[in-house]
Q: What sequence folds into this?
């Protein structure tokens, strides 16, 4: 059984609807876009895209998930301990691996236990259990889980305000954003609000 820390490959968000922490009405109000209730505005699609970009920038900076969804973590092996690169993690849905024969298989339930720490979640293997042999390939293991904030665990208001600051920055510079001449950058005020929520700082 491997006690070393595994190489973590990119995490994948599974298809599905995400409830953004900022509604369209909140986005309109923040950037002072006037639109009657129930009516659309020419900038609505841009605003929704910028809300997503602002949320993703906050997630990358803090290593936290601010939408409630299903995700997959890709690994090369089945270690004794799996440290999730994000938080919070609410539920382990299953682990799939590619065996030596090249065929996918589901890891038996109960081999891993979820430690749902709010800052450093992880999986811990059951002592004495032998892991199956894997095909030697990147991403041979897929850990599917539910994570992020949602009902009962709302996004902190300071984080939402940081996203609004980023949204305002993107909207004020929307011509550059549309033409692709600038990446999503967090304003200094947003960074200050997000800093206490970075993983490893105990929030």
A:
């Amino acid at each position: 059984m491997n006690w070393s820390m595994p190489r973590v490959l990119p995490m994948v968000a599974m298809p599905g609807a995400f409830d953004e922490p900022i509604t369209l009405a909140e986005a309109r109000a923040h950037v002072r876009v006037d639109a009657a209730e129930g009516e659309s505005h020419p900038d609505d699609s841009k605003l929704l895209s910028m809300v997503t970009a602002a949320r993703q920038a906050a997630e990358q900076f803090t290593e936290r998930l601010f939408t409630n969804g299903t995700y997959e973590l890709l690994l090369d092996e089945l270690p004794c301990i799996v440290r999730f690169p994000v938080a919070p993690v609410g539920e382990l849905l299953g682990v799939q691996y590619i065996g030596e024969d090249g065929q996918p298989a589901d890891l038996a339930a109960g081999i891993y236990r979820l430690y749902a720490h709010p800052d450093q979640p992880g999986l811990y293997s059951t002592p004495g259990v032998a892991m199956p042999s894997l095909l030697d390939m990147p991403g041979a293991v897929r850990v599917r889980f539910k994570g992020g904030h949602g009902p009962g665990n709302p996004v902190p208001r300071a984080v939402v305000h940081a996203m609004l600051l980023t949204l305002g920055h993107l909207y004020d510079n929307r011509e550059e954003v549309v033409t692709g001449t600038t990446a999503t950058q967090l304003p200094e005020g947003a960074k200050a609000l997000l800093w206490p929520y970075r993983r490893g700082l105990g929030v």
In short: The first strand starts at residue 8 and ends at 13. Residues 68 and 151 are 9 Å apart (CA to CA). Helices lie at 24-31, 44-62, 157-172, 174-179, 188-194. Confidence is low (pLDDT under 50) at residues 1-5, 178-182.
